[in-house]
Design brief:
Length: 274
């Protein structure tokens, strides 16, 4: 159950303040009954809401992709006041939240959506969604280390599933691309630490069928329609109609109309003495 003005605003009807005004003016009905009570609780999934007799459509589904920089928390708000990924997103009417989590010191691909069913499926362990990371480690990743990653590594929360490993650079600092199918806490860092290879940088470059591509760090983009369909299909959901988020209109302050020139003051200054 949610407050009526919040449901209206999230459905893209108008700003929260304007929605309150619509309610106060008696223009909103819930199941055919006019509601003027502020904070009236509704179930948007089950109840019929209308403004001026026109049904309010359920919140459309939207998906955004962010190239997360390091030093941002993957949360909607942080009690310690640290910067969160939400501050990098545009203001939209839909309630977006991150699909899963990247560590504070991890960068790369992070999806945001308001589709709970999609999120649930993408994160469900039984789905084995592939995540690809580019990992920079201190030291060489020798054949034995690569084999252990490929076969599974014993961590304190159990054996990891086999990973696909590709060497990108071998040296005092090595770069590896690794594809995993699980989403345990700090999993990639712990896998390399177990091999005695501390992780210096970690970046996610793909999530299921979605690749980060050339998006700059700190920037976001919408999914392409083809990516949208591929993402839904990857978790056996019928893709809903492709939609862009609702960017709220900037409400301009009305300027008072200009009323011509100021009338001249009829004071005594400069008046010639007679
Ligand atoms: N694995 C990690 O160790 N950290 C992340 O942020 C993601 C995967």
């Amino acid at each position: 159950m949610e407050r009526l003005q919040k449901v209206l605003a999230h459905a893209g009807v108008a700003s929260r303040r304007k929605c309150e005004q619509l309610i106060a003016e008696g223009r909103v009905t819930v199941d055919g009954q006019t509601i003027t009570e502020m904070g009236y609780l509704v179930d948007a999934e089950k109840q019929a809401i209308a403004v001026d007799g026109k049904p309010v459509a359920a919140e459309q589904k939207v998906i955004l992709l962010l190239n997360k920089p390091t030093a941002y928390m993957t949360t909607v708000s942080d009690p310690e006041g640290r910067r969160t990924v939400m501050s990098l997103l545009p203001q939209v009417a839909e309630r977006l939240y991150p699909v899963g989590r990247l560590d504070y010191d991890t960068s790369g691909l992070l999806l945001f959506t308001n589709d709970g069913a999609l999120t649930e499926r993408l994160l469900h362990p039984s789905r084995d969604i592939e995540k690809v990371y580019r990992v920079t480690v201190e030291g060489k990743v020798d054949k034995e280390a690569r084999q252990r990653l490929a076969e599974g590594i014993e961590l304190e929360d159990g054996l990891t599933a086999p990973a696909q490993v590709e060497m990108l650079r071998q040296g005092d600092e090595s770069v590896v691309q690794i594809a995993i199918h699980e989403g345990r806490n700090r999993q990639v860092r712990r896998m390399f630490e177990a091999l005695g290879l501390p992780v210096k940088r970690l970046k996610r470059i793909a999530f299921g069928p979605i690749a980060l591509g050339h998006l700059k760090t700190g920037q976001w983009r919408l999914l392409e329609p083809a990516e949208w369909k591929a993402l839904y299909r990857s978790v056996e959901l019928t893709p809903p109609p492709y939609a862009r988020p609702t960017f709220p209109k900037v409400e301009r302050k009305e300027r008072p109309a200009r009323r011509g020139k100021k009338p001249a003051r009829h004071g005594t200054r400069n008046r010639k003495k007679s």
